[in-house]
Amino acid sequence: MQNNWAIILAAGSSRRMGTQKMLLPYGENTIIETVVDHVLGSSIENVLVVLGPDPHKIKETLVGKPVKFCHNINHEEGMLSSVICGFRALPEDAETALIYLGDQPNITAEVTNAVLEAYNEELYGIVIPVYEHRRGHPLLVDMKYRRDVEKLDLEQGLRTLRHQFPEDVLEVEVNEPGILLDIDTREDYDNATKIDDNG
């Protein structure tokens, strides 16, 4: 059985939203609960949530869910710092990490399963879902790149990994625009909730 992990990045400061967006209502739950539930509904069994500001509030929201946490004390250094925090918190026998943004509640379990199936069948080390020629999340990274991720430039971000190893990148076409939609502003939030209402 594979030891696949989801790393959900929930360490942002939500400056553009003006409030902690992870805790905003989304359907019957909050945004972060919806993201976690979609991941738990997939074939992934191990979930790690990376926290930054308001760690206790998010933890309280996720009480009872089978997830682990790590606290990124360097969250002000950007998203890659949270990815690195997550990678360092994974067990040594972890095989893959799928990176999710905590503000992307429209990524379905089917997308996660499609990414994992492509990884298992095609044997590429970096797998990215694509919708209408645009790359989204979750990004799967084989743990053979664990040390490479930790050495990436914080300002350049995780995308530089695929630039370093272009021959090991696989794109997987999915029929899910939610892989592209993250929630940074009130307008984003309104658009996302419309998708949820229609879905």
Number of domains: 1
> Between the first and last Cα atoms, what is the distance in angstroms?
33 Å
Mean pLDDT: 91
Q: What value does the Rg take, in angstroms?
A: 16 Å
Would you identify the CATH architecture?
Alpha-Beta Complex
Helix content: 25-40%
Low-pLDDT sequence parts: none
**Protein structure class:** alpha/beta
Number of strand elements: 10
Percent of residues in beta strands: 15-25%
CATH structural fold name: Spore Coat Polysaccharide Biosynthesis Protein SpsA, Chain A
What sort of overall outline do the alpha carbons produce when their principal axes are compared? globular
Report on this structure.
With 199 residues, the protein is of the alpha/beta class. The protein has one domain: Spore Coat Polysaccharide Biosynthesis Protein SpsA, Chain A (Alpha-Beta Complex). The protein contains 7 helices and 10 strands. The strands form 2 sheets. Strands 1, 4, 5, 6, 7, 8, 9 and 10 form an 8-stranded mixed beta sheet that branches. The protein has a two-stranded antiparallel sheet with strand order 2-3. β4, α2 (55-61) and β5 form a beta-alpha-beta unit. The longest helix is centred in the middle third of the chain and has 14 residues, at 109-122. The relative contact order is 0.18.
